[in-house]
Structures are given as C-alpha cells and as structure tokens.
Design a protein that fits this description.
This is Peptidase inhibitor family I36 protein. Pfam families: Inhibitor_I36 (PF03995). It comes from Streptomyces finlayi. Keywords: Signal. This protein has one domain: Crystallins (Gamma-B Crystallin, domain 1, Sandwich). It is 19% helix and 24% strand. The strands form two sheets. A seven-stranded antiparallel sheet has the order 1-2-3-5-4-7-10. The N terminus is likely disordered.
Length: 212
C-alpha cells in the first residue's frame, strides 16, 4: 500500500478543502465577470509569485496544510474578516480536533481578527495596514529558523501586528538586499499576548521573523 508523507497528506487536505469550496469545475473557463475581480487578481498574483499556496476560499490562501494562511480584504472593506469555515477546518485538522470546531468569541478589539487559541495553537498575525487593516498573514507554530516573508508575498509589507499566543515573535530586516542569509537586523519583538496598531518608523521594512 502506498504511504504518503505528512507533507503530502497536508497538501492533499488543503486540496480537498479547496475543491469543496470552489467545486471541481473551477479549473475550466472563468465567468466573464472574473476578469474584473480585483480580489482574485490579487490572489492570483500571490499564487504566481510564491510556492505551495492553495486558494481555500474567496479571500484566503493556505500554505503547509493551513499552518500559514493569508486573508485578503473583500472589495469595499478595509479589514480582512475572521477565518472562513474552510480555514477553521484546516486549523482544527492541524490541532487534531473535530472538523466542526470553530473559533470562540474573542475579547480582543473587533478590528483585530487574528485567530483565537481555540485550536490549541498560538496564533500570531501580521497586517499590511496600520490598525490591523489590509491583508492578514498568520502562523500558529514556533519557528526557530528565519521565516522569509518573501516566500508568502509579504516582504516589506508589515504595518501592524497581533500576537495572540504564548510565543515571542522577533522581526528582522536584511542587511543586504535580496540576501536571505543577511536577515539579521532586529527591528522589534512581539511579546506574548500583545499587539501593535502601528510599527511607526519601521513600517514596511520587515523581511523575516522567528517565533519561540
């Protein structure tokens, strides 16, 4: 019997969720209105310039089986909405919880849509606008090695952040443009259970981060 690796199973899980949300016929010809859908154009651009991402809902991309998720703002809105049912299903699968598990109401400000700890993981989010506006890019696990924002179409975009869990997140910039090995200039630290509506003069300079 063929045995799939953990990574392969994660990719399959995301693919199943995506197929459920969009239907298997989406690979065919798009409706005429789709060409004018700026949201889809933004998503397509990120998918085209990164590796391993899968669109799981109208406004979300998942990587690594849902361990990293980017949420886009819907047309006419300035903030990304809370995680969709498709995203929450992946979050539950990662935590080994029933697929029907959903986020609990949060005591955080309504503007901060970073996921709660319902799924047994520490979620931390980066936003490309101040005051938690714009796209939201979220993770839920420790990363002792640098995570390159460029791998997720988010390099030099962070303008606010929210750390909902127990990890300490450290954000860095490169000292040499285009050289991931030079991502060593510490910019700020995000202590557990804190958030910042602005990074001030360090706006749009984040290249990578660690979380431990």
């Amino acid at each position: 019997m063929l045995r799939l690796s953990r990574q392969a199973r994660s990719i399959c899980a995301v693919a199943v969720v995506a197929a459920t949300v969009f239907g298997t016929s989406q690979a065919g010809a798009a409706a005429p209105a789709a060409s004018a859908d700026t949201l889809q154009q933004e998503i397509d651009e990120v998918l085209a310039t990164t590796k391993g991402g899968v669109q799981i809902s109208r406004n979300e991309i998942a990587w690594h089986g849902g361990r990293a998720i980017m949420s886009f703002t819907l047309p006419g809105e300035e903030r990304a909405r809370v995680s969709s049912p498709a995203a929450q299903k992946l979050q539950a699968q990662i935590a080994g919880l029933p697929a029907t598990t959903r986020e609990k109401p949060s005591a955080a400000p309504a503007a901060d849509s970073c996921p709660t700890e319902t799924f047994g993981n520490d979620w931390y989010c980066f936003y490309d606008g101040t005051s938690y506006t714009g796209r939201r890019l979220q993770w839920n696990a420790p990363h002792t090695w640098d995570v390159d924002f460029g791998d997720y179409g988010f390099i030099n975009k962070t303008s606010s952040w929210s750390n909902r869990g127990e990890l300490n997140v450290r954000v860095y910039s490169r000292t040499r443009a285009g050289d991931s090995n030079s991502c060593v200039e510490h910019r700020w630290t995000e202590p557990a259970h804190t958030r910042a509506a602005s990074v001030g003069s360090m706006n749009n300079i984040a290249d990578c981060f660690t979380a431990s």
